Amino acid sequence: MAPRIKTRDRIVQASLELFNAQGERSVTTNHIAAHLGISPGNLYYHFRNKQEIIAELFAAYEADVDGFLRLPEERALTVDDKTFYLEALLAAMWRYRFLHRDLEHLLDSDPELAATYRDFARRTLANAQAIYRGFVESGILLMNDAQLESLTLNSWIILTSWIRFLCTTREVAGDLSEAMMRRGIYQVLALEGGHIAPDFQPAVERIFERLYVPLEDCRG
């Protein structure tokens, strides 16, 4: 018999599902309680307000990204690592897609979350730049420091705005799929196109082919 899931965990999971499906602004704590078949008072026993639920979800997303966006220990990076990072980014963005969809509203509504996000952004940019530098040092990417810094920033801009791009180009804003998200990861990889060392181009091209989704499939 499977162990009973704690009410607090059920609230967090249901909130994530509703936020992703409907957008955070369309979902209230009463909606979450009704979805779970519990009283609002029971929900408030665990979370004082919706901001606390969002903060817990962001902490989980933050921990997920921090967990995989790091250099491997005591070895050089390989093309397989590139696949790992891209697939891990795709999975994290898809699981917590509401955060990117409603990001500006979420940060404007909660100064504490905004401060946490700024720290997360600085740390993520630093980690991403270290990883790109690792690909340069392993000979997979050919670029100087200025190009490496620009690649990092441009990748961040694409990743943090891709879901909003999708929402503004579809008739139903929340009608998203993992395939559409995959095209966003492809766009990040495309930034590297002119910097792949010749010896690694065939392997990277196979990653391109796996990630590619026609742009018309991303529009409503």
Automatic annotation (TrEMBL):
Classification via Pfam families: TetR, TetR_N
Origin: domain of life: Bacteria
Ranges of residues in domain HTH tetR-type: 5-65
DNA-binding found in the keyword field: yes
DNA-binding region per Swiss-Prot/TrEMBL record: 28-47
Keyword terms, alphabetized: DNA-binding
Entries under InterPro entries matching the protein: Homeodomain-like_sf, HTH-type_TetR-like_transc_reg, HTH_TetR, TetR
PANTHER family linked: HTH-TYPE TRANSCRIPTIONAL REGULATOR RUTR (PTHR30055), HTH-TYPE TRANSCRIPTIONAL REGULATOR UIDR (PTHR30055:SF223)
Designated name of the protein: TetR/AcrR family transcriptional regulator
Species for this entry: Pseudomonas schmalbachii
